[in-house]
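Hey team,

Sharing the tRNA threonylcarbamoyladenosine biosynthesis protein TsaE run so nobody has to redo it. Sequence (158 residues) first:
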Amino acid sequence: MKLAINSAQAMQQLGAALAETAQGHDVLLLKGDLGAGKTTMTQGLGRQLGIRRPIKSPTFTLVREYREGRLPLFHMDFYRLESADLASIDLNEYLNEAGIVVIEWPDKIAEFLPREYLGLTLTRVDDSWESTKRVVEFEPHGERAEAWAEAVKAQLKA
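Structure output:
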């Protein structure tokens, strides 16, 4: 499934639809260049979960935890990950907790990822940094991820 996104607000609405249909233990992998909208989408997800604190990119901290929403949100960004840094994070602990794990730059830790997840690839439509036009491609892996993608699709049509 591919979606055309034409504004930051629409990207946040996608995040809200993901949150509305999410369940504990869901894993969302976000791929895309810098500035593609990964954190913007996660902000919409967090807001829909009921998280009141600002959702910020965890680029320099690797993980930000938000536990005040309907489900806990664990937002990870491995863009600046050095190989030894992953040892400081117990990824399995986050994956086993009944929250939502959102991982930006998942390719950096591919060998540690679960088999079931919903992958999203966010691509700029043009090269202009001012443009907010994106294409989001869904890549579900596993039954739960397939169901989640279908639920998001239905949510966005409603």
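Helices lie at 8-21, 38-49, 91-96, 143-157.

Ping me if you want the raw files.
A.
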